[in-house]
Each structure stands twice: as C-alpha cells, then as structure tokens.
Amino acid sequence: MDTALDIIIFIIQVITGFVLLYIAYRLFRFYRTVGFDKRFGPYSVELLEDDSESFFDMVSYYYDKVQNYLSKSLIKIKIFDSYSKKYEKYSYGKRVNAIDDMNYISKKIFIGLLCVFLLLFSCIFRYVHVSLLSILLAFLVGFFALDVYLIIYDRMRKNSIEKDINKAVIIMNNAFKSGYSIMQAIYLVHTQMDGAISEEFRKMYIDITFGLNMEVVFNRFADRVDCVEARYMATSLGVVNRTGGNIIQVFDAVERNATTRQRLKEELSSVSASARAMFKILVCIPIFIIGILLILNPTYFAPLFKTPIGILCLLLSVIIYVLYIIIIRKIIYVEVDL
Questions:
Q1: Most buried one in 39, 110, 135, 176, CB count within 10 A?
Q2: How many other CB atoms sit within 10 Å of the CB of residue 260?
Q3: CATH number for domain 159-270, candidates 1.10.3470, 1.20.81, 1.10.1330, 2.60.40
C-alpha cells in the first residue's frame, strides 16, 4: 500500500514539475517578447489599441519592479558590489551601469528562493520533515544554477564565434580586394552574417562611428570574444596601422591561418569523435544508474549519509569521478595552437 502511494505521489510530483517547467518556459518566452517589443517598438506602428493587461504582463511588471528594488539595495553593500563585477563579462558590451551587473545577483537570489519554495512544497506534499540544511542546500543549488547557465551559454557563444570568424575574415578580405574601406568591410560582415559574430561586428561599427581608433576597436573586439583568430586579426591590423603596409596581404595571411586552424579542428574532431562519444556515455552512466536506483528505492543510498564510513566513501567516489572527467577531457580535447 505504501509503495503504491509513493508511486502515485511520485507521478503527481513529476506532473507538477512539468507544469512548473512549462510555466517557467512561458515566462521566459514572454520576457523575450517584452524585450523585443522594447527594442523594436519605437520603429513599428501599432495597428490596434489594446489597454488590457495580461497575467504575464503583471508578473513581468512586478518582477522587474522587485528586481530593481533589490538590485538598488544590494549595490549599497560592498561585498555584493564587488561580487557583481564578475558578471560584467556576460553583458557582452550591453552594460549601461552597475545595476545591470547587480541584476544577475538579484536573479540568483530569486532562483534560490524558488528552489527553496519547490523543496518546501515537495516536503509538505509528502509530509516529510524539512531540515535547515536541506533548505540551505536547495538555496545554494538555485543560487549557483545561473552561473552554470551563463558558463554554458558563454562557451556556446564563443564556439559560434570561432566557427564563424573564418567566414568573416573571408568576407572582409574580399571586400578589401573590391576597394572597400575597413569600416565598410565591418558593416558588410554585420549585414551578411547573423548570430553572435554579426552582433560583435555591429559593436565594432558603432565604436568606429563614435570616433574610436581602429586598433582600439579591434583590441576591444578580441578581448570580448577571447579568440585566437580575433587576437591575430587585431595584432595584424595594429601593426599595419602603426607601420603601414598592404592590408590585403595582411588579411590573406589571416585568412590562411584561420582556414588552417579550422581544418585542423575539423580533422581532430572527426578523429576523436568516437572517443568523445564514449567519454560522454561513461560520464552519464553513473548518474543514470543513480537516478534509476533512487526511483526504485529512495532509501537505497541512505547508509552513505548516516555513517562516517559511508560519507567517506561518498566523498571518495565524487573525487574520483571528478578527477576522471578532468583527466579524460585533457586527453581527448586537444587545442589547436598556430
């Protein structure tokens, strides 16, 4: 009877989790829509006047209001002000003031509180006692979840730029051969490409429009994207700008270097594809087995948390697992340096 009740409770919890994820997804889509509306609204014509306010409008309004109030309160505390500086790199040149960095801290606090709420909801629903340690752990998991997302998003963005920068160099080189200036070549890359690389070249075009030196503009671009090709491009243009020279020959060398690096990366990726796939499978298998065991028998790992030897074994297992991931990644993932 207890087993059947536990299964029913687990099914209800899974359904509730999916409902909450769907609500979070809808809120995320709505938040993006509001951002696009603020961005393109002044340049569009509204055909219909609608004064009604939807539920998501109200949620977004109050959320932004509370977030701004919390950010303005936290920025007065020196510890939070110093901690928020590390998130400046995730603004990608869109930062206006220090409040933009502090908004990341506010979002982390909101996510942490949401995780605590979900924990309390789950424990109350199952009539389970909630400890202070569990609440603290849930808050920390939610608090650092945004960091994991930002790291993954930043890595995906850099990979996208590294993949597209070779095309950008080819477009600029062909533009120079057609008689275009550097400013026109940059604008051509912005219009002909999309994604993160187009956004970065748009920022470069704006910097040049406001009168910044060409060398400064490309150095800022290389600092933002943290890419070898971008650094090589910035250094080459800096040398040409100071000493003079044929910019077409310089970009021919940049294009050859970028093409060679891209070809080597593709060859290494094809050679190590099976090894990387096996590495990912072996990393996921322990997590998958632990999840299955927890579903079938939630108390299966209880002795690991109740005895000193169990805690020691658990710590050793986690350390060995993390060391395995680090060592195998160093062996499989090879960087191309030219």
A1: 176
A2: 13
A3: 1.20.81
pLDDT > 60? residue 164:
yes
The per-residue pLDDT of the chain, averaged, comes to: 78
Find out whether 134 and 198 touch, Cβ atoms under 8 Å.
no
What token pair was written down for 10? 């687990």
- State the Cα–Cα distance between residues 290 and 318, nearest whole angstrom: 13
Question: pLDDT, tens digit, for every residue of 20-48?
Answer: 777 777 777 776 776 666 666 665 655 55
Rounded Cα distance, 63 and 39, in Å: 19
Write the pLDDT tens digit of every residue in 231-278. Answer: 888 887 777 777 777 777 877 887 788 788 778 877 877 777 788 888
Encoded tokens for 335: 């960087």
Whole-model pTM: value is 0.67
CA 135 – CA 309 distance, rounded (Å): 25
Structure tokens at 205: 């075009």
Token code pair at residue 156: 């995906």
For residues 230 and 165, is the Cβ–Cβ distance under 8 A? yes
Helix, strand, coil % (nearest 5) of the chain?
85, 0, 15
Angle at 151 between CA 117 and CA 232, to 5 degrees: 165
